[in-house]
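subagent[fold] <- orchestrator: predict structure for attached chain, return tokens only, no commentary.
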Amino acid sequence: MRRVIFVDDAPEILKHLQRTLAPMQAEWTMEFYPSATAALAAIRETPCDVVVSDMTMPGMDGAQFLGEVRKVCPQ
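subagent[fold] -> orchestrator:
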């Protein structure tokens, strides 16, 4: 099963994604994080297969976050 991580600082977008993607639960393990920092901590614990990120987050934007993901989990 693929582990897919979604990151967005807007809680309403994360909730919408959870509802919309609920039918995929049989195929994907999905995790939703409100910050890049929280998502990076989870990825350090257990690598993921796919990352979907907002590009305009405070603190660490999506490009910076994905660059960090690449260092932590290059595969």
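orchestrator: received. Logging for downstream: The first strand starts at residue 2 and ends at 7. The beta strands are 2-7, 28-33, 50-53.
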